[in-house]
Amino acid sequence: MRVRAVGYVGGLSMVPATWVAYGRRGPYPVAADLATSTPLLIDAAGNSLGVYDEARLDDVVHGVNAAVLSALFGAIISPHLGSRGAATLVTAVAGLTGEVAWDAMEYGAERLGAHGLGLSPRDTVADVTIAALGVAVGAAVTWLRWKPAAGAPLVGGVVGSPRPRRG
């Protein structure tokens, strides 16, 4: 399906594009690339073998994708936040926002004439629920792995934020 092909290309290019955009500092992030591409591989394999709906791969993809992307977002943003709780909350909000945006994109694609998405209110609620569980896993990983940036002062809950003026 053409709509999914666009999503596959976007998802597969996310890590390499980010790595290039940040000046190729350090070795290529193979683990992040594998974590991002694995849900896409599951999705593509299920679609190409014709077992996507029968095997409930959609649920697996929503859960794994939400967990992986939330945890990756948490790993990127958490060193810039001054507390474990703030990092976890921002991770959870970003993950849930991403899932709602994804489901809105699916709805919009179907309204514009894309066929075969198999959307229903029940399926959408199941997707969001399973993705919320994945986001909880990603937020828990952020909670467990949080640490502030080395040498950065913790001011006002954000690492390196300016100190308020007195007087």
**What is the rounded distance between the termini?**
63 Å
Order of helices and strands: HHHHHEE
Q: Which structural category fits the helices and strands?
A: mainly alpha
Radius of gyration: 18 Å
**What coarse outline follows from CA principal-axis ratios?**
globular
The strand count comes to 2
Q: Could you explain how this protein is built, in words?
A:
The chain is mainly α and 167 residues long. It is 68% helix and 2% strand. The protein is built from five helices and two strands; from the N terminus they run H-H-H-H-H-E-E. It has helices at 2-21, 30-49, 57-77, 84-111, 121-145, and strands at 154-155, 158-159. A hairpin with a 2-residue loop joins strand 1 and strand 2 (158-159). Helix 1 packs antiparallel against helix 2 and helix 3 (57-77) crosses helix 4 (84-111). It is globular. It starts with a helix and ends in an 8-residue tail after the last strand.
Question: Can you summarize this structure?
Answer:
The chain has 167 residues and is mainly α. It contains 5 helices and 2 strands; from the N terminus they run αααααββ.
